[in-house]
Write a structure and sequence with these properties.
Strand content: 15-25%
CATH topology of the largest domain: Transferase(Phosphotransferase), domain 1
CATH superfamily of the largest domain: Transferase(Phosphotransferase) domain 1
Number of domains: 3
CATH architecture of the largest domain: Orthogonal Bundle
Oligomer: single chain
């Protein structure tokens, strides 16, 4: 048994990957061969587990052993690649699955590449690979479990023979060319009477610091382990081909921590179920949340486990025996595990479906909000354009407006005559001069001369500021002249007898064309009629 404080095989591989130096055949073959032999004994004892580099720890006996992590599926993608396709990354494997895992680990040791779809033969990525090893890996890495052997002992023997060939080869010899027609040790059976072979255990020196110039060295030691080679990787012989030598009984190895002795195949599960169903005695009591449930017959307990009423952690008591967890009972553990996997798979599918529904609703909601937002923006743009172009009067701001009448002050008799008034006064009505029009606001004011007597009544403006605002202040007449929003406009109008006899328009910035246009619009307006002259100034 190994300690999790020791380096793992993944540590070794990643160190070699960082240095760009894969393991040699002399280094990798002893590791894979010894591992296959140990796993064969574990499976013979009835245990199932996961085999991947991060779960293989370097022990004091200079060998890699499966540790407690072998009871859990891997999380590293490179470790997941070492599991056979049928496990789906979550089912512990039998001997057939471990054959695949040992082959995948050996492939990664020699090539620093993971196995999977599109992988090339090892001889193409690791020059010097013997054709016998290529053939062995083609059997071990078969994706179809029916086409993959389940004899780890035969795999260990094949790797041993290939290692012996590599060790005997001259050190300076060039890599051998592929020879598919050569007989491969991996498919030859040692036959009856051959009981074991010797495989030297490797000694690994880890040098993981950044200052280490060389890759971890792997050197053979003097002691060896026994490997049973009474079976081969080839399919079992048919009728008339001879029988295999029976294996001697063995007390079995110490189990891998966390490994579960459980059946995996449908036939094995069916056999267990048939045996349990043949037991009619209600002698199974389940302790759940501190309460006893039962007693149940075996078939009733299987139904309760399948319906998730009882789970792996619940305690099972049979008669007067001490209760044990359902997951530790060799008969009920596989059914409890399959129920848990089914429950998790169902929950995972439900979560995915719920996520899809929520995402769909979210997308529909976002799309609806986007359509509404676009509609509101479009409506706002239309309103804005109509407001600016068709209803500009609503946005015109009258900054200042004044209105005053031209008359004498305090009842004084006053005659006012300013040059330029000749020809602009058409007559007089009650002493009030009547102007001809067509002049500027200032010229109309200068031409207006009114005679007032002391004590005479009058002098009030005939139009108030509010009245002028109703006529000049609405600003609608500015639209037809194309006045931009940024332009300031000052309008001075001299009003007499309901019309503008004098108009002066100034703009900021100055624009004579717009000024003339606005002045003509003001002259065309109608005002309340009064014989006196009133002056109004409006600023926009």
């Amino acid at each position: 048994m190994s300690s999790t404080s020791e380096p793992t095989l993944r540590t070794l591989i990643e160190t070699r990957r960082a240095q760009g130096q894969p393991a040699s055949l002399e280094e990798a073959l002893p590791i894979a061969g010894a591992l296959a032999a140990e796993l064969a004994e574990q499976h013979r004892a009835g245990y199932t587990f996961f085999v991947y580099p991060s779960a293989l720890y370097f022990g004091q006996d200079q060998l890699f052993h499966a540790g407690p992590a072998s009871a859990q599926p891997p999380t590293d993608p490179r470790d997941l690649a070492c599991l056979p396709p049928e496990s789906q990354g979550r089912l512990p494997g039998s001997a057939r699955a471990s054959v695949y895992s040992v082959g995948a680990i050996l492939y990664e040791l020699l090539s620093l590449q993971s196995v999977g779809p599109g992988m090339r033969p090892l001889s193409q990525v690791a020059p010097g690979t013997p054709p016998e090893l290529d053939q062995a890996l083609s059997f071990a890495l078969a994706s179809d479990p029916a086409a993959r052997p389940d004899d780890l002992h035969a795999l260990a023997q094949a790797l041993y023979q290939i290692h012996q060939q590599v060790s005997r080869a001259p050190a300076a010899a060039a890599p051998r060319a592929a020879a598919p027609e050569a007989p491969a040790p991996v498919i030859t059976s040692p036959g009856p009477g051959v009981g074991s072979a010797h495989f030297s255990a490797p000694q690994i020196h880890f040098s993981l610091g950044p200052e280490a110039p060389a890759a971890p060295a792997i050197r053979p030691m003097q002691h060896s382990i026994e490997i049973d080679v009474s079976m081969s990787l080839m399919p079992k012989p048919g009728p008339g081909m001879g029988a295999e030598a029976p294996r001697p009984p063995s007390p079995g190895p110490a189990p891998i921590p966390g490994a579960i002795p459980m059946a995996q195949t449908a036939d094995e599960l069916h056999a267990i179920k048939m045996r349990l169903e043949a037991d009619p005695a209600p002698r199974y009591v389940v302790v759940k949340s501190g309460m006893d449930h039962g007693p149940f017959r075996a078939v009733e307990l299987l139904q309760q486990i399948a319906s998730h009423t009882f789970e792996e952690e619940d305690l099972l008591r049979i008669g007067a025996h001490e209760p044990i967890a359902i997951k530790d009972h060799p008969d009920f553990a596989p059914f409890a595990r399959h129920a848990r996997l089914h429950r998790h798979e169902k929950a995972e599918k439900a979560a995915i479906a719920q996520a899809v529904v929520q995402e769909s609703r979210s997308l529909r909601g976002k799309a609806l909000i986007g359509v509404i937002a676009l509609g509101l923006l479009g409506a706002a743009a239309v309103v804005f354009i109509l407001t600016k172009r068709g209803q500009k009067s609503d946005a015109v701001a009258v900054v200042e407006e004044t209105a005053a009448n031209v008359e004498s002050d305090a009842g004084l008799v006053k005659k006012k005559s300013v040059g330029g008034g000749v020809g602009r006064v058409t007559g007089s009505v009650g002493g009030i001069p009547q102007l001809s029009g067509g002049m500027s606001c200032e010229a109309a004011q200068n031409a207006y001369v009114e005679e007032m007597k002391i004590g005479a009544k009058g002098g009030q403006a005939d139009l108030t500021a509010g009245q002028f605002q109703a006529i000049l202040g609405h600003g609608a007449y500015l639209n037809s002249c194309g006045v931009p929003d940024s332009m300031g406009v000052n309008v001075c109008a001299a009003i007499q007898n309901g019309r503008a006899v004098g108009v002066t328009v100034t703009t900021t910035p100055r624009n004579p064309q717009i000024q003339s246009c606005i002045a003509s619009r003001v002259r065309a307006m109608s005002f309340p009629s009064h014989p006196k002259l009133d002056i109004t100034r409006t600023k926009f």
